[in-house]
Amino acid sequence: MGRPPQDASRRLERAHRILDIAGDLILRWGYDKTTIDDIARRAGVAKGTIYLHWRTREELFAALLRRERVEMLSQVRLRVAEGPGTLRDLLGLLASELLRRPLMRASLLGDSKVLGKLTRLKRSSGAAADLPTGFETYLGALLRLGALRADLTPAEHVVALTSVLYGFMLVPQMMPEGYALPDERLAELLADAGSRAVEAGDPVPAGNARAISRATLEFADLAVEAAQRKLRASLGSEEQGKPEKSRTSGVSGKSVTGPEKSATSLEENAT
Q: Average pLDDT per run of 10 along the chain, which is 271 residues long?
């Protein structure tokens, strides 16, 4: 109980412990029924200590979601680096990570059982379709490299992929029990449907394929960096400007650094 530790690393450790407890309680009871008192009691800290980290319950929950996003995107980035790094690969990885993270899935779908009144705030803020940073730039690079359909506008590419993502996440909840699919298979089908909807039919040259792989990894780097910045802003002023270590297995302690070039320039290296 009492004041949070002055040492920055201990303060950060306590913040993560509080977020761990908040995540467990919100998944069990839902946001509306989870109070700061509940979180403080379970975490073994004073209620005032939590308010020294976050001014409101909404800010605490935002930090929780931002941490989940960092962990999700860090895992995707790790897998993308293993190659080959196509759009289909990226979609499948994003889908599989979303499906295994209940808070991220609830946030994507605006699940009122989990989010409660935050569902209305999310819709009114226009954040329901929160795309990872750099996604449209990434699709633009793929288009110039001949990987995407030229008959679709950039907006149409985004709308098609977002619709596939939301559809595959939402529709299974409406289907009879006999139609339930394993998450792994659902992610595969989503990746297949999304890539078929927007990818060009013809194979790309070998040089372009390498550039596409680099563009995919670059997008993953940018998305992780942006997510880390937002998380640091939610963890207190002491953490501003410091890389937030990922809690995801396999990348713990590794700061993902941004690329030196933008995704729009990658096609210049293609043959």
A: 65 94 94 94 94 92 94 96 92 95 88 78 52 88 95 93 93 89 95 96 89 96 95 68 47 37 35 33
Q: What distances in angstroms separate CA 190 from CA 95, 182, 186, 201, 261, one per listed residue?
A: 7, 12, 6, 18, 30
Task: Work out the angle between the directed axes of helices 102-109 and 8-29 (0-180°, nearest 10).
Answer: 70
Dihedral sign (CA 84, 87, 91, 94): positive
Question: Residue 186 in contact with residue 96, Cβ under 8 Å?
Answer: no
HSE (side-chain half, CA atoms, 13 Å) at 2: 2
Q: What is the pTM assigned to this prediction? A: 0.81
| Residue type for position 109 | L
How long, in residues, is the chain?
Answer: 271
Measured between alpha carbons, how far is residue 184 from residues 93, 94, 100, 173, 240 in Å?
10, 11, 9, 16, 37
- For 49, the 3-state DSSP assignment is helix
Torsion over CA: 108, 109, 113, 116 (sign): positive
Place of tokens 């792994």: 184
3-state percent helix, strand, coil for the chain, nearest multiple of 5: 65, 0, 30
